[in-house]
Design goal:
Layout: E1 18-24, H1 29-45, E2 50-57, H2 61-71, E3 77-80, H3 84-88, E4 96-100, E5 111-112, H4 117-130
Parallel strand pairs: 1-2, 2-3
Antiparallel strand pairs: 1-4, 4-5
Helix pairs in contact: 1-4
Length: about 130
């Protein structure tokens, strides 16, 4: 799982689970707009070995916490103060979403830009295939 605030999180700790990894920032309008979609995915698949994990980049801790409180998201988010995640995933703009399989591999192209209802359907169709009932 993902530990309490301040804990370090490694994707290796989440092996065996499908991860919906979302890079976001509080100042990013599309990130705010897509948060309800990520929350729905998190709620729907939380008991099916799927983890929605937000990674906050280029942001202050205070602003990130306010964003989470405003939007009432319950899925875990971690802060990357070094931009290491953004660099590792070659992120050019926010938001960006990756689906990482239980073996730690990214099987599809990243979803660059805001999640839409159509993209939500694509993600949930995939998660239905790879996660248990």
């Amino acid at each position: 799982g993902v530990g309490p605030e301040g804990a370090n999180v490694s994707l290796a700790d989440l092996r065996g689970r499908t991860v919906v990894l979302n890079l976001w920032a509080s100042w990013c309008g599309p990130c705010r707009d897509e948060a309800p979609i990520l929350e729905r995915i998190s709620q729907k698949y939380r008991d099916r070995d799927v983890v929605v994990l937000g990674v906050n980049v280029r942001d202050s801790s205070r602003d990130a916490r306010a964003f989470i409180a405003d939007l009432k998201t319950t899925f875990p988010s971690v802060r990357d103060g070094s931009d290491g995640t953004k660099s590792a995933y070659e992120t050019r703009a926010l938001p960006e979403t990756f689906i990482i399989d239980p073996d730690g591999q990214i099987r599809s192209r990243p979803i660059r830009g805001e999640l839409t209802p159509a993209l939500e359907r694509r993600i949930t169709e995939y998660l239905d295939q790879v996660s248990g009932p």
